[in-house]
Fold:
Amino acid sequence: MALLQMKGITKRFGSLAANDGVSLEVKSGEIHALMGENGAGKSTLMNVLYGLIKPDAGEIVIDGKAMDFASPLSAIAAGVGMVHQTFRQFPNLTVWENLVFQNEPGNGPFVSADAARDFVRKLGAKHGLEIDPDSRVRDLAVGIRQRLEILKALSRQAKILILDEPTAVLTPQERDSLFAAMRHLASQGMALILVTHKIPEVTAVTDQITVMRDGRLTGTLTTAETNEAEIIRAMIGRNVPPTVATKVVSTATPMLSVRNLSVRKANVAVVDDVSFDVRPGEIVGIAGVSGNGQPQLISAVTGLERAVGSVVVAGKDVSDFSIADRRSAGISYVPEDRHLTGTAPAASIADNIVFGTHRVSDASHRGFLRKEAIRTQARRLIEQFRVKATSEQVPIGSLSGGNMQKVVIAREIEHQSPLIIIEEPTRGVDVGAIEFIHKTLIAERDKGRAILVVSSDLNELLALSDRILVMFEGRINASLTGNDMNESTVGGWMMGGVQSA
Structure:
């Protein structure tokens, strides 16, 4: 008998059936993939299992016992753990304080910090996910924060573990360590559910694959008996060829010139004397293992971070400009964290689309917002960018991650800036949306825009980039073009020195 049975789960949000009679079974010792396009209902189904959402109909059975989860605490008590795609963390606390929250070691009201630190170190070493227990979460790169989320889930003695896009910001080595940990947990009798859009990961680590489309179950595949093409067809009903941009060499005057840029934190240069150019009509990718200064570099260029050095956009020195003035000078920016920085989740899609241009566009007149014009623009972009939403007036936070990402990209492209800076363009995005986003970026490059892309997905950078800059310990240690843009060479520079292909 299956360790987990979800029978006829139905959940509606207004007229939208996010889950429509969905059933799922996962056996003890099994790693089970849950796949589907953004908006297919995967996250809703897992939130029902974790007690975050109450289903309108259906039943959850664990170890033969019917469950009725009132909250995540009751789900955890029943043996369900979850690694969330969106972080659940206290940014002002340390790693160890986050990790042992509600399970603090010590006697009575007194917490043993030493015991907690030791627990973090041993847990990290055990699973190959080491992390400094005394670091403040707010100071961590996104990749390290994701590592903390994984450790939090692994620290709980769960029978069923849900992993929602857990490798989105991990290096290949970290990913492999996670897979080893997953296999170990499965060998101990746990049931693991991997929610991911990365088909190679599914074929590498899972036993079964369940596919959803438009809130319904469309089929279950045995991993060993299927292939990537069949999985893609099950997800979106068609084949999707890989997107590989035709490489170009731009000789135009740089749209972005960065010279001798440095960012220091606690007397450490996290960005150390960095210089580079991005020209109109080219895509420049920035590669690097998480924690080597990529987010701080982009924050310095966009004005989010104080820096020493110069930033020139379209021939204008913007080094002392505010964020808003840099945007007016010609920068569009898609941040890596679409929830925290890229959107106001409680605001509507329409409001999020007009943010940043509401004072200078057709959206306002004599200081007053033109609400119908804002909604018309939003409806046009929703259709153009194939955003799955019931209305332009729904909160953007109610969208799936991929659809939220499409809205942010639509807003920044609509801004018509000559320079687009985009971090993690397809993190947590399904294969169909990845194809759309990649083709959109290539089309904008071909229109003459200068595009700077930062991605933890090396395959994405290799597919999109005309040049790749590699960061290591806060410096750019390689600028690669042509035949040098291959996984072996780029990966070698990411680790600090080139390795032979």
About this structure: The chain has a mean pLDDT of 88. Residues 172-187 form the longest helix (16 residues). The two ends are 48 Å apart (CA to CA). Residues 343-415 form one domain.
